[in-house]
Amino acid sequence: MPELSERPGRLICNWESDRITITCRYLRERDRQVKGEIIITTAIPGIKSPILTTDYNFSSAQTRSKLAKELEELVALPTVNWRLLLEQLSELVPARFRAGEPMVELMLGGKPQPPKWLLEPLLQENQPTVLFGEGGSGKSTLVKGLAICLSLGWIDNPLGIAVLDDRYKIAYLDWEADSVASAWQHTALLAGFGLPVSPLLYRRCSRPLADDIDAVQHWIGEFQTNIVIVDSLALAAGGELNSSETATRFFEALRSLKQSAFIIAHQAKDPNVKRKTIYGNVFFTNLARCVWQVTKSQERGRDQPLYLRLDDEKHNYSSQYEPLGFKLTYGPERDWIRIESTDADAVKERREEQGYTPAIIQALKEAGKLSTKDLVAQVGGNPQSLRQVLYRLKGKGIIVSVPSGGKDAYWGLPALEV
Question: Whole-model pTM?
Answer without folding.
Answer: 0.81
